[in-house]
Amino acid sequence: MDDVFRKMKYQGVKPNAITYSSLVNAYNKTGLVVKIDSVLRQIVNSDVVLDTPFFNCIINAYGEAGDLATMKELYIQMEERKCKPDNITFATMIKAYAAHGIFNVVEELKQQMLSTGENSGFAQKQNKKARRGLLEGHKRNLEVVNTEGIY
């Protein structure tokens, strides 16, 4: 993963939020969550605009890893950056806290989700569109890797 990413950058492919989300997902799926910190440092030193789907991606990675403190910190950063939490954000955090038996926080998050209206059909449709957009971004990145001969 690291080699492909370095080759992409070397060949002039500028990483964006989708590229970084792909990298975070790959690290998460392979159990290399510790490498996500380096991704976050790279983003801080770039002009990449972070959005709700990206925050959902990293919140999910830390939630699945059981690092609830970092997950919560990222949620706070998300709000500070004016990225609006959506039902994916809440569902991800609810799942993580429930897995650790912290049900009082689960209930707080459920109430917060209900108060934001993120459980509405419209929000669900919008999130499906966002996920499709993320998938299309992943496909475009893979096409670049394949057409540029980056293995």
TrEMBL record:
PPR repeats lie at residues 16-50, 51-85. Pfam families: PPR_2 (PF13041), PPR_3 (PF13812). Keywords: Repeat. The keyword Repeat applies. Belongs to the PPR family. P subfamily. NCBIfam families: PPR. This is Pentacotripeptide-repeat region of PRORP domain-containing protein.
